[in-house]
Write a structure and sequence with these properties.
Largest sheet of chain A: 8 strands, mixed
Number of strands of chain B: 7
Radius of gyration of chain A: 23 Å
Strand order of the largest sheet of chain B: 2-1-5-3-4
CATH class of the largest domain in chain B: Mainly Alpha
Largest interface: A-B, 65 and 64 residues
CATH architecture of the largest domain in chain B: Orthogonal Bundle
CATH architecture of one domain in chain A: Alpha-Beta Complex
Strand content of chain A: 15-25%
Number of helices of chain A: 17
Oligomer: heterodimer
Radius of gyration of chain B: 21 Å
Structural class of chain B: alpha+beta
Order of helices and strands of chain B: EEHEEEEEHHHHHHH
CATH superfamily of the largest domain in chain B: Alpha-helical ferredoxin
Helix content of chain B: 25-40%
CATH topology of one domain in chain A: Flavocytochrome C3, Chain A, domain 1
Largest sheet of chain B: 5 strands, mixed
Shape of chain B: elongated
Chain lengths: ~600, ~260
């Protein structure tokens, strides 16, 4: 075992983690621990753009953006956080441009902007051009640019270090309200050697990304297994709003690979088997550019009512054939290439089969607007921060608008980095208890012992069954029965998980062991998603209950706060911060 | 064992994706010497799997790992060609496993899968990427400017932006560098990716560090090592015209103009 000591440890090297690192490493001794190489993070898969009311191409302002974010989130957004997000958006884009990000340009040489779902002029009048973009690889450019700046600043990375535990100096569930609890560090498993490392740190920032692999059909990377959220849950911290998962309307049918909403922003149209532009019926004003939850539900409904396309009538069509091939090549080169590579479809001349794909966790580790992690509705854990998809500030509420996540990681990644470093400069070094690595040592040893042992269950089989039941029962449409079915199966799968056997006996690059650990997180997070969905007896944003099809502000204008207790998930509630936008019916 | 590309009965169902049997012949590397092997042993191992017509090489590798041999080690993440984790040598060509469809590889014959060449192998298909990233760092891959920072964005025309668009696509998968015969034999050479990384800034109108970078690339480890084999361009899963980018850097050095 090896021990390390830093002022700040950042877990995760996607957009939020590296943005935090750029701030933190200027101020305090910082290490970035990442399960992957930094440039492999899933920020790089984001396509369409990053929202900011630059008003470079038409009238726009941060207040309109704030309103759209709150309405898009079906009023579950904390409005103080949304104001910060949208006000700081402009500098966030300009910061990236100054770092060298190659945005597309207007003829005047400014950062170009385009339309995206739910972003409107003057509180819903019409779609507005707010998304700053770099072709359809904006996330790739952000990831590259941030990594390049990290190189420039000599940020210290620990690549392929898998953090498996956080160390706190108290039990957040038994501590009294107001009692101070602080972070002391993290414990990591080094993939290349199988060694365990402890990192003592005054501040820890979690920026570990999403948990899309809870579902079968997902745009998420194989590595997005909710590790950071799972670590927080195991440490006794709550997870907020985990029932809200975004299903992106346009995943490649059967594969889930993302086709950016920019395809519709650039003029693409969704059609059913009859060729009808069905979004005209669901969102008469902004049609195909309605928020993702509404479009995804409309698509699923078309299929359910027999108007799906294809031999099994199980998808709808994204039609780009009326766009000029040159326009497609300039603005949407990558996603049209995906259609060609994976489905053999030529988007110039043929509509592309699409269906909703699990895309984004609106919920996560609860934080305040300074990215400090909450251990209940009011108290923070000193020195502990979270940002990006693994966190819940909450700026996305019940449904995130497209292009607000690349914004989120930049705004709140930066805030987390500054706050973590400033706290570290004033805090005294924490003590790591002697048994700090005990949990991880035991976890790894136990999995190793399963090699060649009695275990009869396979990790991949359990994961497959988990993902299938989540797709079947906890996707776009949910009911009490479907959630109960999923809950029962997850309980069984957790039991079977105790009988798994892995096959790799080696110490080096034991990705077999890694996948077993990841499955543990997925099972626990699925349980939280289901518990939240069962407890929320209303429909709001990405969470739709067929047995409770309307929004119920009287009873459910609250965030869920899910705690793992010995006897299961305990669902508590937290008020939504409302500043000046009273909840209204959500029409587009 | 030879694979067959016969369609199974399931194809008679409307909309069912045809399946076929395929054999993968994988070059394995055991760093620890388990199961009676010597530490560092290299050996070929064949696996046969059932695959769908839409499956990629990565799907077949997953099927092997998840159903037959959990110790098979490879990197992967996004699984659709944007993260750059899973470059490997497939039927003697560098490609991304997640972007290579099995049906495009003549699955009636065994498909060979090896780690990319020229970087130290760590385990099976996993190589040590550090020398590759070290070369990238050497070319100073970040915007360099002088003078005060403007309040708003730096202006850049669409034409100026288009000048370096191709090289912004790079995902640092190392397919190009490890396809380069010069890189295989000359441990000093930066390799094509570092030159692509430099090109992206040298031809960016906002950047003022072009001559610092060109000086690095003019070095004995730099662009003049390139023998224009075009392997890099063929290998690039992003379709970047790597050789063209290298020749533009060479031209800038000879002409003194960017």
């Amino acid at each position: 075992m090896t021990e390390h000591e830093y002022d700040v440890v950042i877990v995760g090297a996607g957009g939020a983690g590296m943005r935090a690192a750029l701030e933190s490493s200027q101020r305090a001794r910082t290490a970035v621990l990442t399960k992957l190489y930094p440039t492999r993070s899933h920020t790089g898969a984001a396509q369409g753009g990053m929202a900011a009311a630059l008003a470079n191409v038409e009238d726009d302002n941060a207040e309109w953006h704030t309103f759209d974010t709150i309405k898009g989130g079906d009023y579950l957004v904390d409005q103080d956080a949304a104001e910060i997000l949208c006000n700081e958006a402009i500098d966030a884009v300009l910061d990236l441009e100054k770092m060298g990000l190659p945005f597309n340009r207007t003829t005047a040489g400014k950062v170009d902007q385009r339309r995206f779902g739910g972003h409107t002029r003057n509180h819903g009048e019409a779609a507005v051009r707010r998304a700053c973009y770099a072709a359809d690889r904006t996330g790739h450019m952000i990831l590259q640019t941030l990594y390049q700046q990290c190189i420039k600043q000599n940020v210290e990375f620990y690549n392929e270090f898998y953090v498996l535990d956080m160390i706190l100096d108290g039990d957040p569930q038994t501590a009294a309200d107001g009692e101070e609890i602080s972070v002391a560090g993290v414990v990591a498993y080094e993939l290349s050697t199988g060694q365990i490392h402890t990192f003592r740190a005054k501040s820890v920032v979690f920026a570990t990304g999403g948990a899309g692999k809870v579902f079968k059909t997902t745009s998420n990377a194989h590595t997005l297994t909710g590790d950071g959220m799972g670590i927080a849950l195991r440490a006794g911290l709550p997870l907020e709003d985990m029932e809200f998962f975004q299903f992106h309307p346009t995943g490649l049918a059967g594969l889930g690979i993302l086709l950016s909403e920019a395809a519709r922003g650039e003029g693409g149209i969704l059609r059913n088997s009859e060729g009808e532009r069905f979004m005209e019926r669901y969102a008469p004003t902004i049609k195909d550019l309605a928020p993702r939850d509404m479009v995804a539900r409309a698509m699923a409904n078309e299929v359910r009512e027999g108007r799906g396309a294809g031999p099994n009538k199980d998808y709808v069509l994204l039609d780009l054939t009326h766009l000029e091939p040159k326009h497609i090549d300039e603005k949407l080169p990558d996603i049209t290439e995906f259609a060609r590579t994976y489905l053999g479809v030529e988007p110039y001349t043929e509509p592309v089969p699409v269906f909703p794909t699990a895309h984004y966790a609106m919920g996560g580790i609860p934080t305040n607007v300074n990215a400090e992690v909450l251990r209940n509705n009011t108290d923070v854990v000193k020195g502990l921060y979270a940002a990006g998809e693994c966190a819940c500030v909450s700026v996305h509420g019940a449904n995130r608008l497209g292009t607000n996540s690349l914004l989120d990681i930049n705004v709140f990644g930066k805030r987390a980095g500054i706050a973590a470093a400033e706290y570290a400069l004033t805090a005294t070094a924490p003590e790591l208890p002697a048994d700090a690595p005990a949990f991880v040592t035991a976890l790894v040893a136990k999995l190793r012992e399963t090699v060649g042992g009695e275990g009869t269950e396979r990790v991949a089989q359990i994961r497959k069954e988990l993902q299938e039941t989540m797709d079947m029962n906890v996707q776009v449409f949910r009911t009490e029965e479907s959630l109960a079915e999923a809950a029962a199966l997850v309980t069984q799968l957790k039991e079977r998980y105790t009988s798994i056997a892995i096959h790799d006996r080696g110490q080096r690059f034991n990705t077999d062991l890694l996948e077993a650990v990841e499955l543990g997180f997925l099972l626990e997070l699925a349980e939280v998603v289901i518990a939240g969905a069962a407890g929320r007896k209303e429909s709001r944003g990405g969470h739709y209950r067929e047995d409770f099809p309307t929004r119920d502000d009287e009873n459910y204008l609250h965030h869920t706060m899910a705690y793992a207790r010995p006897d299961g998930i305990d669902l508590q509630w937290k008020p939504v911060v409302i500043t000046k936008y009273q909840p209204m019916e959500r029409k587009y | 064992m030879t694979a067959t590309a016969e369609k199974t009965d399931s194809t008679s169902e409307v909309g069912a994706v045809p399946t076929f049997t395929v054999t993968l012949r994988i070059l394995r590397h055991d760093p620890e010497g388990l199961d009676g092997r010597e530490a560092g042993a290299e050996y070929w191992e064949e696996f046969t799997v059932e695959a769908f017509a839409t499956d990629r090489v990565l799907d077949a590798l997953h099927t092997i790992k998840w159903e037959q041999d959990g110790s098979l080690a490879f990197r992967r993440s996004c699984a659709h060609g944007v993260c750059g984790s899973d470059a490997m040598r497939i039927n003697a060509k560098n490609r991304l496993a997640c972007k290579t469809l099995l049906k495009d590889l003549n699955p009636s014959r065994p498909i060979t899968v090896e780690p990319i060449k020229g970087l130290p192998v760590e385990k099976d298909l996993i190589v040590d990427m550090e020398p590759f990233f070290a070369s990238y760092r050497e070319i100073m891959p970040f915007l360099m400017t002088t003078g005060p920072t403007p309040e708003r964005e730096r202006l850049q025309s669409p034409e100026e932006r288009a000048r370096f668009d191709d090289t912004t696509k790079c995902i640092m998968c190392a397919a190009c560098t490890t396809a380069c015969p010069v890189f295989w034999t000359d441990g000093q050479y930066f390799g094509p990716q570092a030159i692509v990384g430099a090109h992206r800034f040298i031809f960016d109108s906002r950047d003022e560090g072009e001559w610092d970078r060109l000086e690095v690339l003019n070095d004995k480890a730099g662009v003049w090592k390139c023998r224009t084999a075009f392997n890099c361009t063929e290998a690039c899963p992003r379709g970047i015209e790597v050789t063209k980018a290298i020749s533009e850097v060479k031209k800038a050095l000879t002409s003194g103009e960017v």
